[in-house]
Write a structure and sequence with these properties.
Layout lengths: L1 H9 L17 H11 L4 E3 L19 H9 L7 H8 L1 H9 L9 E3 L41 H20 L7 H23 L8 H13 L1 H10 L3 E2 L1 H16 L1 H4 L5 H29 L9 E2 L32 E9 L5 E9 L11 H9 L6
Parallel strand pairs: 3-4
Antiparallel strand pairs: 1-2, 5-6
Helix pairs in contact: 4-5, 8-9, 8-12, 9-10, 10-12
């Protein structure tokens, strides 16, 4: 019955949450899936029948508390999971059906996946980045926070897009720079990019053939090895030692990228530049995760900070995390008033290194000096959007 409760609650408590790892908690489902996948097993959702503990037929009378309230408010008292799904979210059923998967006839293979980006690029109140005239909007901007209610990503995108448009319209109406002046300003950064490309094109390492170089690039950046590296320490389970080692390995790969192999055509050059972007992003995120842990950060949001090595036991009693030796130490809001800004720089040897600055979050406005005539006149004078 506790398992069934956890499965039902998982329907809308869908992100992993270390605060929901107690008995009957919905995030025990994530750990159960994680453990079985680590053992090489395949895990499936089966919408054709109810969990064994519930049996067939009516289910509401066998539920209580939050689970029953959820089902009642959703009008989901149907006897089978597929009937409940088609009532609550018919578009989800249609989406899979249109891709050749009929959930009324077959099971759906699952895994615990990293989905949302709750970090992002630094923006100001008008969604403008440190790079003038560049406005990251949506999940590209670091505006979403650690705990976010459903729909807030869409809301943030709409608000950010509106405010960016307002600011651009009010402040950036001047004509573009003359071509000559633009080229003079752009010459230095373009020269750096050209020099990087030249190093890749003229790298003396010519002994490895295309297949070998492509394999190495995939392993280091976008392939199975890279994905497993991030899965092991940058997804919902974050062991301190593995995070540090992965960040340093990524830093070394990034530093040696231009000397590792020679690009013989545009396809190989493009692959090398994409690999550089992937490594930069991975290094920044792993460094930020490591910095949070080093400052005493504990489990919060959708991440489990679990010691140096992580969940190193092959068999875990996920019915009770404490008895299984899974350290669930919650942050308790310690870092709720701070945000970590990460900046990529070069160290004394010219190698990439991340620098950190912890800042207070912007406070919600509390002054009530927003008398209509005052605000309206300030708007007319162009004093609001600036």
């Amino acid at each position: 019955e506790e398992m069934a409760r956890g499965i039902f609650l998982k329907g809308y408590q869908w992100p992993f949450d270390p605060g929901k790892l107690g008995r009957g908690g919905s995030s025990l489902i994530d750990l159960a899936v994680f453990v079985d996948k680590r053992k090489g097993r395949r895990v499936f959702l089966d919408f054709r029948r109810n969990p064994a503990a519930l049996g067939e037929g009516a289910i509401l009378e066998r539920q209580d508390g939050e689970t029953r309230s959820y089902l009642e408010r959703s009008g989901a008292a149907q006897h089978t999971p597929i009937a409940r799904l088609r009532h609550m979210n018919p578009l989800a059923y249609e989406l899979y059906l249109n891709n050749g998967i009929d959930l009324s006839e077959e099971m759906l293979e699952i895994a615990v996946c990293a989905q949302h980006n709750n970090g992002g690029l630094k923006v100001n109140l008008w969604w403008e980045s440190d790079l003038k005239h560049f406005f990251p909007v949506g999940e590209a901007a670091g505006t979403l926070g650690v705990h976010r209610p459903g729909g807030s990503a869409l809301n943030s995108t709409q608000v950010g897009g509106t405010r960016a448009a307002q600011f651009i319209s009010a402040n950036y109406g001047e004509a573009p720079l003359p071509v000559k002046e633009f080229l003079e300003i752009a010459a230095r950064p373009l020269a750096r990019v050209a020099a990087r490309i030249q190093k890749i094109l003229t790298c003396p390492t010519e002994t490895r053939d295309l297949e070998t170089r492509e394999l190495e690039a995939k392993e280091l950046a976008m392939g199975e090895r890279g994905r497993k590296l991030m899965d092991s320490c940058g997804a919902f389970i974050r062991p301190a030692k593995k995070v540090r080692k992965a960040a340093e390995a990524t830093r070394r790969a990034l530093a040696s990228l231009e000397e590792r192999s020679r690009a013989r055509d545009m396809k190989e050059l493009l692959a090398a530049l994409i690999e550089r972007d992937v490594l930069l992003t991975r290094y920044a995120y792993l460094s930020a995760i490591g910095e949070y842990i080093a400052q005493g950060g504990r489990s919060r949001g959708s991440s489990l900070v679990c010691g140096e090595e992580g969940l190193d036991k092959e068999d875990l009693d996920i019915e009770n995390c404490a008895s299984a030796g899974i350290p669930v130490s919650l942050d308790g809001g310690k870092f709720a008033d701070r945000i970590c800004e990460v900046r990529l720089e070069s160290d004394g040897d010219g190698l990439p290194v991340c620098r950190f600055k912890w800042k207070k979050v912007r406070p919600l406005p509390t002054d009530r000096e927003d008398w209509f005539e005052n605000v309206y006149n300030a708007w007319l004078r162009g004093e609001v959007i600036r």
